[in-house]
Amino acid sequence: MKIALIPAVAGLAMIAGIGAAVADQVIVTPEQRTVIREYVHKHPLASINLLGVELNVGSTLPDTVELREVPDTQYRYTVVGDHTVLVDPGTRRVVEVIE
Questions:
Q1: pLDDT tens digits, residue range 44-99?
Q2: Which candidate, 36, 47, 37, places its Cα nearest to that of 71?
């Protein structure tokens, strides 16, 4: 009985983890992306370097990084290592790297 329960519990935990990952996914619509790119292009920021921070979607930026508002969106932006990143201000997590 115990042997059969372990795979079942592991499978449920994996499914729950996948559900949580999907729930955390941020969708930036093409319209939002256009507005954001145009705004960022017109309001450039100096690039900063963050030692020890890997810049990926989901990375969390330290509180010391200043985030700038993008009008009409819920996101903020900054430039790290010459890459403009879109950030959720509530969690400070990178939601998109803008090329």
A1: 999 999 988 888 999 999 999 999 999 888 999 999 999 999 999 999 999 999 87
A2: 36
With beta carbons less than 8 A apart as the criterion, state whether 85 and 79 touch: yes
Partners of 69 in the β-ladder: 76
Residue 26 is classified by DSSP as -
Q: Could you give the CA distance from residue 89 to residue 99 in angstroms, rounded to a whole number?
A: 20
C-alpha distance from residue 83 to each of 20, 33, 42, 72, 96 (Å): 28, 15, 15, 22, 10
Alpha-carbon distance 74 to 87, whole Å?
9
In sequence order, what are the residues at sequence separation of 6 or more whose Cβ sits closer than 8 angstroms to the Cβ of residue 22? none
